[in-house]
Structures are given as C-alpha cells and as structure tokens.
Amino acid sequence: MTHRRYYGWSVVLLAAAAMVGTLPARTQGLGIVTEHILTDFGLDRVAWAEINLWATLVGAGGAVTVGRLLDRFGARVVLTTTALLLGIVVAGMSVATTVAVMAVLITLTRGVGQSALSVVSLAMVGQWFVRRLSFAMGVYSVVMSLGFMLAFPLVGVVVQTYGWRAAWGGIAAALVLGLTPLAWVVARRGPETLGLRVDGETAEEADEYRGQDVVEHPETHRVGAPSVGNDALVGWAWRDAVSTTSFWVFAIGAALYGLVASGIGLFNESILADRGFGAGVYYQTLVVTALTALVGNFAGGWLAERWSMPRLMAVAMAVLATGLAVLPYLATLGQVMGWAVLMGLGGGFVMVLFFGYWARAYGRRQLGVIQGAAQALTVLASAVGPLLLAQWVARTGSYSSMFTLLALVVTCNAVAALLVRMPLPEDAPVALAHEST
What domains, with CATH codes, occur in the chain? Predict the structure, then answer.
C-alpha cells in the first residue's frame, strides 16, 4: 500500500497547473482573442490562419528539444525555465504592435508553451509513478480539465471587460510570479532525489512486490516477474522506442484525435450550422463535451489500471470513429447531444492513455525524449486539422465526406491497437537497458 502523503501527488498537481499555463499557446486560447487581434492588426482570417499554421509547425520542434533537456537536467530546472520563458513571451505579445513581431512571438509561444511546457508537464508524472501511473494520470487529467474549465471563462471575461492585451498581461504575470517560483519549490527530478521509491513504496513493499515471481501483465498477458520501475536507468532508449509498432500505433492514434479535435474545435459552430443548428446549440455541446471528457478521464484512469492499455486505446478510437461517422447525419437536438457525449468520452480516454502510456511501456530512462517525439506528432496534426477541413470544404462545399473518411482512418487505428503488443521497460534491448544516459 502506498503512502497517503507521497510527494508524487504534489508533483501531479504542479504538472496539471503547468499544463493549464499553456493556455495562451493553444489554439483554443488564441481563439478567445482572435477577433480582437484581427481588428488591432488589420489581418484577414486567411493571413491569421497561415501565421497560426507556420507557428505551430515550427514550434513543434520544442517538444523534442525539451525532452532531451528534461532527461539531462531534470524537471526542476527545465520546468522553471520554461514557465519563465513562456511568461516573458506572453508579456511581449501583450505589447506587440506589428504583425511581424506578433508572428514571431506566437511561434515562440507554440514552441515554449504548446510543445515544451506540455512535454515537461506530462513527463513529470511518469517520473514519480509506475504501477499507479494510470490512476495518477487520471487524477492529473481531471485536475487539468477543471483548471481549463475555470481558466477559459475567466480569461474571456477579462478580454471582454479590459481587452485582450490586459488579459495576456495578466496571464504573463501568473506564469512569471506564480508558476515559475512554484516550479522551483515543488518540482524534483524524481522520487530518488528525496530518498523515496516510485509510487511511494517502502523497501518492504517493493521487495514484496518483486517477490511475486509469477504474474500476468494486464497489458501484455505475458507471465513473468513484475517491474516496479524503481531503477531510473531501466527502460528503452528513444531510438529503440520509436522503432516499435506500439509507439506508432499510440502516437498516430493521439495525433488523429488532435487533428479531429483541432479541426472540429475551430469550425464547430459552422459544422453544426451546416446541420441546421444555431450558435446556442454549439455552446451547449461545449458544456456536454467538457463534462463527459471528465467522465472519460475518471473511467480511463480506472480501466487502465485493470485492463490492457492497447485494448482501451482501441475502444477510445472506436468511440471517436463512431462520433465522426454520425456527425454528417445529425438531425435532432438529442442526436447532437449524443454526438457530443461520444466526442467527450473518446477524448477523455485518449487523454489519459496518451499521458500514461509512454512511461508504462518504455520506462523512465529516456521518457522525456520519447514523450516529446509523440507530443511533436500531435502538435503537427493539430496544426493540419483546421487547414485540412477548410480546404476540403472549399473544394467540395461540405464537411460530410471528410468526416466519413476520417472515421475510416480512425477505425483502422482501432484495429491496429487491438493487434499490437505493448512492450514493457524490461523488454528494452539488454545492451541499452542499464547504460547511463
């Protein structure tokens, strides 16, 4: 039984706060101030979309870069530095006066915030939990979702009342004066730095767990000695990890969700208008999706502790594919709400799985780089999603056929998840499993 006051839970809360701090670097966050920026800088929507696209593509490189830094210097230094840099960049955005400067600063927010700070946030939890990682990621997902649910309307009120520059200035202050010192005080490289064991186990509990000579791993259904993950050097090198089928099935699945979520998120109002529904229905779906995503977080965290993660990924992708397939045929308010439930649940499942899979499958040795590579793929997909939908509508006049095509692609990923074998940290090539980084 793990300690109730295990320090890792403080890290989970800090990691969730760090993810909420990425708000000004995310598409949804920029969406709050888009109309104001267009007016201030005299931009049209096409030019703004192009700036956003290239900023996201260039910024995706931050995910891989910060992964290397995290593995080398630890969470305390990297999180503190990243939070401080993002705060400075956001402060710069709040006083920018030219399109060129704004384009550079948005690119920096994508690289430092959406990519780098996201990777640090996710990897931190994997450094403190192994056997209870899925549950910890479930808690992380719920706290993060609640944080965003509070932050978005609060920022929106400030934007409407005082203007977008004041709102961005306030966010910058929160990052520099709040998250940065908190990161320095709370963040640590891992439990070993405090004389603790992963998951908060005592030496006796760890020995007892190791003594269970024959167990069946729920993810792989293979029999063997369990790994408690207390050796920080045990795990996969990133080059070997990205050569496994499992890495690509999960990374592509998460990227597909990012593509769908960003595309639909940006054009959701017009998509529903295409089906004959007004803006009021659109706002209702946002609430339903957010609430059911929380349910998906809880359920996904609970199931991932007891069930095969690849099978759970297959379920998540199947739910998402169903939502995409029925979208072109929505005709009643009840059907729209049912669709919102599907998208929320599927997204909640994917979120927990993406957050927890990499440490569970590949260990902690090069977790930052491995998770950074997967994060970079999701960032790239989220950049492509809105442009893909916009171009499809421009050429065909309708979203419907694209949703059908996406449903087929997501279904293929669900089938692949059913067939893939999940690796474990002790499966790493022997020559690399214990070499120093």
Answer: 8-194 (1.20.1250.20), 233-419 (1.20.1250.20)
